[in-house]
Structure to design on (425 residues):
């Protein structure tokens, strides 16, 4: 709590200094409790692949503080905003849990500085940068939010809007120098011996360059957004960077429907970004070891939410991903995932939700797979698919094709029952 108090005081002081308006407090949280048949406690199993409903076991919170600064005479058409966020996650299994609080965002955004384009925004600091996610699986397919950076967004270029960003993305790599330490003996009794335990590591200065072009109108209610991300390391003197630069290309086609929307995503990556296609990476991290230099990959995603009449809404995710030449073994990594979440609204608050998910995965000689069925009774502040806060009681039945999570035998299965809450504001 002391860490939280110090961070909160610092953030609040920075936002309130010279401000006349009230701070916009926003945030997100999820939490829950449950039990399972085999393992006792509630647990999560491959939620990005088979769905998150009744399949989460953590406590995660975000505290956001956003302050628009007062106008200055002669600059009334400008908007200056200080935006900050503190995030923290833990298991939620005890009443008093210690954990690190991360300053996830702290940046300044200025709109209206360009006389010929008043909608363009310049920014600098640390922020969640134009993240793209699928809510029902908590999967971010495009998220280059790295360290501190800056850029310009919503710049009018032709029929659409151009956004350019540059963010830090440091990492580490092993050197050729041996690292020494104590090596435990396998018998657990004999004293450990002193010897080589691996290679020393060194930091690598990495950078993400992100370019987006959005708002390309195609046909009726259809828009296209394209993104190109380039991850490069800046070598220090007398340093040889082991990892090749990586490129990730994305095209997002969104079709507006009379009662919802549908989105199709095409992505391609090289080097570490190639590996991330089937590993469900989003571009916010990069393998600096050099082991992924030959990797290439792609994925195809279709997802959306559609209403059927006044009482039924359905969300879904379909995904196929493939990465080739992964790691030193040059393996192929292939993944298929399908999730559907229909819900029936009984009234303004109460709804019954069903979520079905299945996935199949192979990497080299290793195969994985599983499925989930969840039924939940929920009460939310409104009847929309997106209405939150939402309280849920649920029962889930899960299968693990290879027995790696729920037991030691192929085809193991388990059930979980519990309660959940999710809120954003």
């Amino acid at each position: 709590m002391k860490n939280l108090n110090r961070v909160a005081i610092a953030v609040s002081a920075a936002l309130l200094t010279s401000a006349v308006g009230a701070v916009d407090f926003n945030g997100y949280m999820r939490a829950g409790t449950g039990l399972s048949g085999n393992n006792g406690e509630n647990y999560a199993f491959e939620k990005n692949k088979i769905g998150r409903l009744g399949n989460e076991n953590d406590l995660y919170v975000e505290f956001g503080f956003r302050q628009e600064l007062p106008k200055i005479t002669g600059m009334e058409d400008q908007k200056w905003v200080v935006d900050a966020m503190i995030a923290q996650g833990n298991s939620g299994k005890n009443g008093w849990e210690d954990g690190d609080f991360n300053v996830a965002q702290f940046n300044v955004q200025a709109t209206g500085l360009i006389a010929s384009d008043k909608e363009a925004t310049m920014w600098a600091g640390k922020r969640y940068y134009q993240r793209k996610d699928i809510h029902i699986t908590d999967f971010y397919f495009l998220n280059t939010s790295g360290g501190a950076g800056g850029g310009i967004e919503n710049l009018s270029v032709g029929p659409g809007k151009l956004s350019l960003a540059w963010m830090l993305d440091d990492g580490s790599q092993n050197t050729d120098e041996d690292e020494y330490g104590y090596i435990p003996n396998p018998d657990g009794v004999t004293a450990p011996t002193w010897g080589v335990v691996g290679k020393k590591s060194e930091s690598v200065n990495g950078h993400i360059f992100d370019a987006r072009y959005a708002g390309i109108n195609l046909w009726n209610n259809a828009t296209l957004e394209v993104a190109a991300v380039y991850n490069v390391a800046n070598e220090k003197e007398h340093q040889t960077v082991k990892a090749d630069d990586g490129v990730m290309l994305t095209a997002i086609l969104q079709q507006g429907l009379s009662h919802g929307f549908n989105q199709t995503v095409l992505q391609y990556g090289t080097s570490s970004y190639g590996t991330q296609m089937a590993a469900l990476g989003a571009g916010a991290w990069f393998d600096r070891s050099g082991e992924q230099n030959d990797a290439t990959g792609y994925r195809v995603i279709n997802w959306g939410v559609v209403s059927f009449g006044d009482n039924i809404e359905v969300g879904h995710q379909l995904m196929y991903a493939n990465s080739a030449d992964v790691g030193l073994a040059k393996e192929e990594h292939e993944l298929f995932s399908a999730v559907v979440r229909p819900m029936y609204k009984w009234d303004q608050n109460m709804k019954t939700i069903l979520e079905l998910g299945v996935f199949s995965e192979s990497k080299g000689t290793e195969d994985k797979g599983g499925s989930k069925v969840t039924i939940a009774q929920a009460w939310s502040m409104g009847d929309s698919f997106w209405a939150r806060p939402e309280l849920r009681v649920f029962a889930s039945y899960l299968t693990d094709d290879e027995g790696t999570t729920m037991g030691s035998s192929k085809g193991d299965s388990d059930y979980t029952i519990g309660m959940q809450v999710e809120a954003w504001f």
The mean pLDDT is 91.
